[in-house]
Amino acid sequence: MTRQDDGGLDEPYFRNSYGAIRAGNFVTTISSRTTAPGMSSLRSSLSPDRLGSVIAVLIGVALFASPFVIYRANRIVAGVGRMLTDALPTPGAVGMMVVALAVALCAALVRAPLIRLAAASIGLCAIFPAVGYSAGFVTPPGNTFARVSPALGFWLLALAFALLAADALTRMRLGPWARLAALAVAAGATALLLVSGAWDNLSLLKEYASRADTFWREAREHLWLAFGSMIAACLLGLPLGILGHRVPRLRNAILQVLNIVQTIPSIALFGILIAPLGYLAAHVSLAAALGIRGIGAAPAFIALFLYSLLPVVANTVTGLKQVPAAVTDAARGMGLSARQRLWQVELPLALPVILAGIRIVLVQNLGLATVAALIGGGGFGTFVFQGIGQTAIDLVLLGAIPTVALSFAAAIILDALIDLTRRGSP
């Protein structure tokens, strides 16, 4: 018989259990010592990623279920989709599929931001020249009427690679200067692609080639409408915001009026301004001399100006309200006058919030300026509505792509500027 202690435990059983526990701890310790440094980091970097899985699905749909380009006999007839294997020579198609699948695998399994960014960059550098080469490959020799456009497969691949790059940059938490540098690199790569002639056979570039002078004229008009209305709104909105901060009764009235203006749809506001501006042009010679008419750039500029006031005024009031009272009291104690406190203390501290309002205005105006083409205001919307009327999707893209690119660049630049002002504010 085996001896038991007061607790009723069998001694050999206790010794065997304790030995097993010690052996288990020893094995666990050894395994943790051998796998902790390298294997844990490897497992963390190779764990599945949710967004990466979505990106991998997009890449799979683009490669195997969507046409890469669309071929049309001329610019207005219906097109025929060509899959990737038919849009490129066999070596090029195989290489493109290998690159895309490698990027999909990296997106789904690898979490290291630098590796994800490198994979996305390789994918983007492969797909954009490939679609340009595909246009020349698909078009019969000597045919000047055929049109080749990027199809759903190309856009899905571009979207997937761009999402992966944006996700990697977000995880890297780049500072403002690094974000500006990344934007400059992207802009330089795009300019190099266009200058190299790799896209000359695409329908989009053929539409541009036949409208180059008109394109740059409308580009200047678009920028003037967006930036000019923003500057005018800042010149009036900043004093109104300061006045609203100083006089609470006026603040409520100003913000309520601007809120009402903001609720009016853009097309309706353009239409509302036609009648009074037309009357003004007919009865005031100076207004007519300045180019103010019922249709054209004048009502578009005024409408964008009115839409821009609310974000500028509201953010100015909010930024000034967020200045700590202790800071203004200290400035008052130092003998600063009300004007000196405003310019040397309050406005510098409120500047990041004010710039956030200006960012909203600029991105908003770059988009709304497209609608101004409906009343003869010009801008990139001219190509958008011409393309819709002619059922020419490439003409629509000729106006839409620059608008999106300008809005994206403006958002990144102003976000970086906001971060810089926050770091430099006292």
Automatic annotation (TrEMBL):
Statement: the UniProt record of this protein carries the keyword Membrane: yes
Keywords: Membrane, Transmembrane, Transmembrane helix, Transport
Source organism (scientific name): Microvirga lotononidis
PROSITE patterns given in the database record: ABC_TM1 (PS50928)
Protein name, entry field: ABC-type proline/glycine betaine transport system, permease component
Transmembrane annotation, as ranges: 51-71, 91-110, 117-138, 144-165, 177-199, 223-245, 257-280, 286-310, 342-362, 368-388, 395-418
SUPFAM superfamilies: MetI-like (SSF161098)
GO cellular component, one term: plasma membrane
Top-level division of the source organism's lineage: Bacteria
